Amino acid sequence: MYRAATTPFAAWWNLRWRQNHLWINYAALGLAGLVLSGEAPEASHWVRAALAAFHHVNVYLPRDGSYHEGIGYWRYAVEHLSVFFMALEMATDVDPWPSFPWLNQSVRFRLHHMFPTRGGMINFGDTPEVEETSAHAQLFIIARAFKNPVAQWLAREIEYATRQNPEDTGRLWAILGYDPRVKAVPPDDRPTFALFDDLGLFLIRSDWGPDAILVAFKCGPPGGRRNTWMRISGLGVNLSHSHPDQNSLIIFARGRPVLVDDGYARYKATRHHNTLLVGGLGQRGEGGKWYDENRPRRSILTRLRPVLATPFISAARGEAAPMYPTAAGLKHFGRLLVFLPPDLVLVADDVAARRPVDLELMFHFRGRLSRTGAGDRFLLQDETGRKLLSARFVSPRKLVARIRPHTRPLFGLRQAAVSVQRLEHATLSLGPAARTGTFRMLSILKPWTSDRRIIDLKAVTTAGAFGAAFIEAGRRNVFLTRTGPGTMTHGPFRADARTMFVAQDRAGNLVALVLAGRELSCKRESVLLADRPVDAALMRRSQVLVVLARSARAAKLTLRTGFKPVRVQVGGRNLPSQPGWSRGEITIDLAPGRPAVIVAVGPRAPALPGALAAEGRADFFLAR
User: From edge to edge, which strands make up the β-sheet containing 330-340?
Assistant: First the structure.
């Protein structure tokens, strides 16, 4: 083992620093060195070799805590690493944890993949949908090492969800790793969304409760952006456990997955994911038992950018055309995911090809799917007839929809995969009736969480934008999207309509705005990216600043804008002037869902050098 690990190219894995086999073998080598210390003269060399290897591993891992082989292989790799580090700490005076901060950062990666009902997880890549055993042991060890209260809470949740599993191999390590002094704290006050930019992965949920809706969207170079650059330079690892699934999404609602991924499949195929087929062709690298994408320079162009997250709307846009083979003739495949809390998911697809081709957008549903009423309207029900989700699709072109049973060959005899095989699935494929070089479609996916129903749906096209108008809960809504630069207005629509805009401005930012009867258009958007605080310096030259509280509680916010306001409104009421306004310092009491509108002096406001301060946090955008 020592010779295989330390002799270049003696084993296929020994220079693949992010590959789980390297982690497992070096952890085993280090553990053997600790056990045989004082008995085998070479034991100290084994331990030092393992420590040196994991130093290299830490250098090559992404800073956002993600893992390129998916959440299932995160557990597999971390299981061995955490046990070795714990044994090293107990047997010697070496503290290895500070030199490997990725372990603590990866708790966020694991947390946001968890189903709201526990007992399962988002399963992009070779990952089972059900909760795997022993994951709680690694989290107990990480919580102990980094004094991480959320890791302690997550470990307890997973331990409870898997308590009946006789194959739980992590109980011993959980006992050794558990530290009762670390308080378990649920993530209730943490952001309900997470962006893992390296993988191009965006996860958003309505809240942290068991009845929450969870949406996951993926679009990035296979194996992650950092690993793709390493592959270009010859240092990257293989992508065996990745899938040809860019611009794919997963939805969890009503206590179960409703729009699903194929998990640990026997062979990798794009048609098994919720994304696009072009003339029957999927993305590069499909068709084999292991995923093999061999054009990293092309893949690096695949991206999930930009991403927007506010209390009233969250959105992310992916571009996946570089992942398709040249024979597909695809120039553009943009997908915009929009989540409107608490229970509405919108997916806008924009496809352009070099010649007329057959296009199919695939949707894999868990349950019984049936067409209802006229047009492209569908209802998803479970095995007992309980309503799970309603789906409607609009397009400027005539759509052809096909429903067929969803079957897939599964890999091996993994318990998780066998249990999924017994569940009822349905595949819905949608596309234009004839071959075409351009295609746009809007999908409105409404989990059946209440009696609110979407009615009066119709397509809307105006000023180069495409979308839909519909009535929900008695309110007329208009949703519009465009992928090109420019500004949109909502003049053609009734003043009592709630209008939702999503677009990209000339700087490449996502523009989003929800209006109720105000004749305003979007000018520039600067909002929260991932879960970092807002930086007001990002905003430039506009006359209207809108601020919204991010948390569910009221917040007192001090905003240093750099300009004297003409008017400040909160919830539609003007605020009287206060000390500090002449210096551009504004203090407001902000209630959730009640925006503050601050109007600047002059045709152009100066750049905003300040930032939010004081209690609470807020999201804000500029409009003109």
Answer: 303-309, 314-319, 330-340, 344-357, 436-447, 387-394, 377-381, 368-371
DSSP state of 327: G
Residue 310: name the closest of 287, 329, 338 by CA. Answer: 338
pLDDT score of 617: 45
pLDDT value of residue 263: 82
pLDDT at 459: 66
Mean pLDDT per block of 10 residues along the chain (624 residues) reads 79 81 92 91 91 89 90 89 93 91 94 92 88 85 96 93 70 88 92 90 93 95 90 81 94 94 86 95 92 90 82 82 95 90 87 95 94 81 91 88 74 43 78 93 84 63 66 66 44 45 55 44 29 29 48 61 65 74 74 58 37 39 38
The neighbouring-strand residues paired with 430 are: 361, 401
DSSP sequence for 189-223 = TS-SEEEETTTTEEEEES-SSTT--EEEEE-SSTT
266, 411 Cβ separation under 8 angstroms: yes
Contact 512, 306 (CB under 8 A): no
Q: Which helix (H) or strand (E) holds 415?
A: helix 415-421
Q: Phi-psi bin for 388: left (phi > 0), alpha (psi -120 to 50), beta? A: alpha
Which of 528, 567, 522 has the alpha carbon at shortest distance from 542?
A: 522
Cβ proximity of 509 and 487 under 8 Å:
no
Reduce the secondary structure of 331-386 to three states and give it as a string: EEEEEEEEEECCCEEEEEEEEEEEEEECEEEEEEEECEEEECCCCCEEEEECCCCC
Per the omega criterion (within 30 degrees of 0), is the bond before 409 cis? Answer: no
Residue 461's pLDDT is: 65
Q: How many CB atoms lie within 10 A of CB 101?
A: 14
Whole-angstrom distance between the N-terminal and C-terminal Cα of the chain?
Answer: 66
Non-local (6+) Cβ contacts of 68 within 8 A are 18, 198, 199, 223, 224, 227, 237, 239, 242
Name the 3-class secondary structure at 7.
coil
In this structure, the number of other CB atoms found within 10 A of the CB of residue 575 comes to 18
C-alpha span between 318 and 334 (Å, rounded): 6
Q: Is the peptide bond before 342 cis (omega within 30 degrees of 0)?
A: yes
